[in-house]
Amino acid sequence: MRVKIYRIMLCVVIGMCYMTGCNRQDDTNENLQKDMDTLVLEHEHGTEENVLEPAMYSDLDHLLSIGDTGRLNTAESDGKLTSTTITPEELYTGDEAEQIIREYCQSGEAKYEYSDPKEGYTWQVIRYRTPESPKDLYINIKLEGLDGNKLTYDGVEVSSRTHDIFYKMKKTEDGYDDLYCYYEIPEGCKEYMLECGIRRWDTSETACYKITR
Q1: What is the top-level taxon of the source organism (predicted)?
Q2: Structural domains of the chain, count
C-alpha cells in the first residue's frame, strides 16, 4: 500500500509541474527533483526530520570543509539506496593519527596487527558523525584528488582505499558519533578530497570534502 501511495504522489508532483506552466525547463527540472527528493526521504525515513541537521549542497565543484554537514546517497545493508548525512569533525595527523590506529589494532576489534604506512607515506584519520549507524548504511568514504579522479602525487597514483574504525562508536540523541576513518597519504601531499557516498550520475552531487593540512 505504501509503495502505491508513493507512486501516486510522484505522479501528482509531475502533473503539478506541467500544470504550473513553467517557462524555464531548468526550473521545472530543478523543482521536480527537489519534490521527488522530499518524497524519497519521506518514503524511506518517515519525515525529513530524521536527518541529523540541515545539510549543505556539495559536488565536485562545490567542496565542503571539516565541520560542514553534507548530504549523500548510500546503500543499506540489503543494498537499497537511501539518503543520509555526514559531518567530519576533526582531522588527525602524525603521532595522533598513529596512536588512534595503534589503539584500534590492539583493541581486539581489528582483524590485523598495526603496521607502519609504506615508505614516503603517513597515516591520517578523520573523526565523523552520522544520524544512522554506519553498520547499517555503507558510507563508502574514498580518497581522491580535488577533481574527483584518482589522487596523483609526483606522478604516482595514490590508493583511494580507506579503513573504518567503529569500536568507539557512541550513540547520541542525534545519531552516532566517534566514528573514524583512516588512510595513507604521501608525506608531501598538502590537499586532497574525501568523497562520501554514491555520486549522483546527473549532477555529481554527494558529500565531497576538501582536506588541507
Answers
A1: Bacteria
A2: 2
Other C-beta atoms closer than 10 Å to the C-beta of 74 total 23
- pLDDT of 116 over the 90 cut: yes
Same domain, 67 and 81: yes
Cβ(178)–Cβ(170) below 8 Å: yes
CA angle 122–181–167, rounded 5-degree value: 120
The DSSP H or E segment spanning 90 is: strand 81-93
Mean pLDDT of the chain: 81
Give the distance, in angstroms, between the CA of residue 114 and the centroid of all CA atoms in the same chain: 26
Q: Tell which of 50, 65, 91 closes a domain.
A: 50
Distance in angstroms between the alpha carbons of the first and the last residue of the chain: 52
Residues 36, 98, single domain; the answer is: no
The C-alpha angle with vertex 201 and arms to 204 and 12, in degrees rounded to 5, equals: 105
On whether the CB atoms of residues 209 and 194 are closer than 8 A, the answer is yes
